[in-house]
Design goal:
Blueprint: E1 5-10, E2 18-23, H1 30-34, E3 45-51, H2 72-89, E4 97-102, H3 104-115, E5 122-126, E6 148-155, H4 162-174, E7 178-185, H5 193-204
Parallel strand pairs: 2-3, 2-4, 4-5, 5-6, 6-7
Antiparallel strand pairs: 1-3
């Protein structure tokens, strides 16, 4: 279902030490999420932006039972696994692979890394949470080994309940992620300069 289009920016993978996988939100595109890179400290990164079929990773809210979001959800997770494996095969180790997403892409970034936890470079979720009508912790395996994880969101947000943000943080902390969560009052469903500054400082500049 997914897996047809990846847009590349930044350094060539063969010349890069680090890679950032960037996941757009529902209705967005690879170019949309890549536009954030001009504000991020990613001069040394290979940038990869997969684009979802019909610009949506899965059809319904991330809060419905996961079976209702199939086959899109599993297809998206499988594609991310293939991208990660391809980067490793080209010489970029997992600890130098970073994930960033906005909204639906943020949820997917968190869900994928929690299902395949290891020492990554970092996980950046601009407005997102782990996926499901409840948290299916039996799906989450591995040890983040102090991977830095950032989740930012608004209170309220029309799509992402604050309670799910905090519950997601708790799950990832138990898997040895080093988490930073920032909740911004009445910010709206967007990415703020404060978040970008924090992500640059805490994750990308390291």
């Amino acid at each position: 279902m997914h897996g047809d289009k990846i847009t590349y920016r930044g350094k060539k993978i063969s010349a890069a030490d680090k890679a950032l996988i960037m996941l757009h939100g529902r209705g967005g595109s690879a170019e949309d999420i890549l536009s954030l890179s001009t504000y991020l400290e990613v001069e040394d990164f290979a940038l990869l932006a997969p684009e979802a079929t019909n610009n949506s990773w899965y059809p319904y809210s991330f809060l419905v039972p996961p079976a209702q979001n199939e086959p899109g959800l599993s297809s998206a997770l499988q594609w991310l696994a293939a991208i990660e494996q391809d980067l490793v095969s080209q010489g970029i180790s997992a600890e130098h692979i970073y994930f960033l997403g906005f909204s639906q892409g943020a949820c997917l970034s968190l869900e994928y890394t929690a299902r395949h936890a290891k020492k990554y470079g970092g996980v950046i979720a601009f407005t997102g949470g782990l996926i499901g009508d409840q948290l299916y912790t039996e799906n989450y395996q591995g040890d983040f080994e102090h991977t830095p994880v950032f989740i930012g969101s608004s209170d309220p947000d029309p799509h992402i309940p604050v309670e799910r943000v905090h519950a997601s943080e708790e799950v990832m902390q138990k898997m040895n992620a080093v988490t930073t969560v920032k909740i911004y009052p009445d910010r709206g469903h967007t990415v703020s300069q404060q978040e970008i500054d924090l992500v640059n400082q805490l994750i990308l500049k390291k």
